[in-house]
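Z., the sequence and structure:
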Amino acid sequence: MWLAAGVAVPVSVVALVVLALHGRRVLLAALAGLVALVALTAVFDNVIVGSGIVAYDESRILGVRLGVAPVEDFSYAIVAALALPALWVLLRPRRAR
């Protein structure tokens, strides 16, 4: 339960710093992707949790929910939307930077 917060927050902060250091355009593109991915996650996580396809042990989640989906479900989407573009810009060949 706390792993999502303990890993997602620091990784997201580092990714945001990397993206910001590579320019406003890069940061805004990543943030646009983040908004889209979180919106899709909100819709479809609520569908699968609300329909009973996925269930969570209440003792293993933080208890905060967005709709019926636990907030931990959003940690992967947030980290992926920020960390992958950050890795992309960091791993580009030098001449492309």
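The chain has one domain: 2-96. The CA atoms of residues 46 and 52 lie 10 Å apart.

Let me know what you think.
H.
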